[in-house]
């Protein structure tokens, strides 16, 4: 398993690339760029990625793999907001406090290493 810092760097890099792709798609839709190769070159992203995303053949990683995750983005944001609330009220955020909420949201028990991975 990669070190947490390496995972954060990779996630940050993917988020930046996703932002570039969305900006390029917006510029194509508004007519700033006439073709996918022009927009891809301007933003420094692969042409095929932009082309397939524009045609609807692919999705970003989060949407494409959301069915494989225990928490969908809505449930994840609920869990994050709840953990932030606990922290702001001075309650410790630990496996013991997160597991019941996770179980209530998903109907499943979190795995042994869930909190260290996510």
UniProtKB/TrEMBL annotation:
Annotated Pfam families: HTH_psq
Entry's transmembrane regions: none
Domain HTH psq-type: from-to ranges: 18-57
Protein name as annotated: HTH psq-type domain-containing protein
One function term, GO molecular function aspect: DNA binding
InterPro entries tied to this protein: Homeodomain-like_sf, HTH_Psq
Region (Disordered) location: 53-73
């Amino acid at each position: 398993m990669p070190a947490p810092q390496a995972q954060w760097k990779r996630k940050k890099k993917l988020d930046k690339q996703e932002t570039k792709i969305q900006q390029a798609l917006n510029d194509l839709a508004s007519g700033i760029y006439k073709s996918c190769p022009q927009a891809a070159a301007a933003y420094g992203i692969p042409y095929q990625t932009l082309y397939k995303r524009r045609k609807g053949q692919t999705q970003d990683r989060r949407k494409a793999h959301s069915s494989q995750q225990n928490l969908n983005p809505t449930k994840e944001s609920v869990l994050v907001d709840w953990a932030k609330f606990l922290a702001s009220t001075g309650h410790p955020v630990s496996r013991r406090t997160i597991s019941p909420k996770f179980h209530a949201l998903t109907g499943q028990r979190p795995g042994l290493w869930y909190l260290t991975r996510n």
